[in-house]
Amino acid sequence: MARKPERRRAGNASSGRALLLAAPALLSPLIGPVAAGAAEPQLSASIERHWTSNALDSEIAVADWYTLLRGGMRHQVGDDDANAGIDAEFQLARHDRIAIEDDRSLAVSAHAFRRLSPALELRGTLAYSAISKGDHLEIGPLVIGTRALKQVASAQVQMGLALGGATALVLDMSNAFETTGRTHFEQDLLDPVRLDPDVNKFRAAARLMRTLGPLAAGGSLSALFATVEKLGSPPVALSYTLYGAQGELELRTAAGIAFGMALGAENLRGAHGIYDEVRPAWHVKASMPLPRDFELRGAWFGRFETADSDDPLASWLDRTEIELGWKATERLAFSAGVYREVKQNLLMENEERGRGFYAQATYAFGKPLSAIFRVDVSKTFKTILDIRERTTDAFIGLRARI
């Protein structure tokens, strides 16, 4: 699958599972952002024109141009004590030549929030997404386009409790069901067939945080139960259980320096005892303002990767990201970043070694409209498969928020 919309960007520290607080606070920031109601919906849109050296995102490097269109709407009514809202987003990617890699997606969600007392908050969220994914199947020198529709429906409930002494407890429970229809092949060269199993994911977590001035400290426990439909022989994917425990610490100073750290362990258990291992897990991130309106940001994390893995079970991901930003003027900003990652496939014994670089310039014409120019360069080496992928992606785009 080409990396177009889903592509990982250097400097995206949120890609780790151990999400840390943006600032020490109680309840609402722990459960999620709660904004006062707005009389008018908030609209956003962007259009980008890309050139990529590797439209197939494989060792077969085929260059192509593609257009990426995004749009979204957010509307919320109520106030800080009780509100409800709806979000909707769509995305379209269209290639000039390699049409088999075109993607389309739509996502909608609705939430309701209520502060029952100064010590108790509740939030519920329902979400649905549909993704028509264009991909390809390589059979020797032959490349056959494929397309499948993936749908995800999920529900989440969160409860925040103020325990006194600047201490807050957040309980989180969610369930998501993923289903993928039959894969259709280009020009009906092969009969449609199911290649991806249905998956049900249930997650429960508890997080306790205490705020002491600029310092926030605490810990969390989590459990993820994934029930995967048996499909193929041997199966293309396996059921698993993932347990996690970690301690968290975050510091934010008056000078703008921020530091966050989460250290703990994760236990991954594969179906029928095929895999059972405990590994240390971590997520460290920091940001620091520099002279002349520069800012340095970085993150390093290690964890089990179950969502984005070519392995039937999961991978172990070790990733480092560093980004330097510069606000040249009120309208013009620059940033550049690098990343390095090693992804160990647990059952296939393959190792994916990736590294990349990006540079970006953003210019704000006015409050609603801005322009962006960006270049991404990435390299990936898959050891056992002996596959080397090299991709350069450059784009210019316009973004508007109303």
Short summary of the structure?
The chain is mainly beta and 402 residues long. The protein contains 1 helix and 19 strands.
Q: How many beta strands in the DSSP annotation?
A: 19
The secondary-structure element order is HEEEEEEEEEEEEEEEEEEE
In the CATH scheme, the class would be Mainly Beta
Structural class: mainly beta
Which overall shape is indicated by the principal axes computed on the Cα atoms?
A: globular
Kindly report the CATH topology: Porin
Query: How big is the Rg?
Result: 22 Å
Between the first and last Cα atoms, what is the distance in angstroms? 32 Å
Helix content: under 10%
Named CATH architecture: Beta Barrel
User: How many independent structural domains?
Assistant: 1
Largest sheet: 18 strands, antiparallel, barrel
Mean pLDDT: 90
Q: Which residue ranges are poorly predicted, with pLDDT under 50 across at least 5 consecutive positions?
A: 1-25
Keywords: Signal
Signal peptide: 1-38
Protein name: Porin
Description:
The protein starts with 27 loop residues before the first helix and ends with a strand. 1% of the residues lie in helices and 65% in strands. It has an 18-stranded antiparallel beta barrel. The radius of gyration is 22 Å and the shape is globular. Residues 1-25 have low confidence and may be disordered. It has one helix at residues 28-31, and strands at 42-52, 64-78, 82-95, 103-117, 120-139, 142-162, 167-180, 184-185, 199-212, 215-228, 240-252, 258-270, 276-290, 294-305, 315-327, 332-345, 351-364, 369-382, 387-401. This is Porin. Keywords: Signal. It comes from Aquamicrobium terrae. Residues 1-38 form the signal peptide.
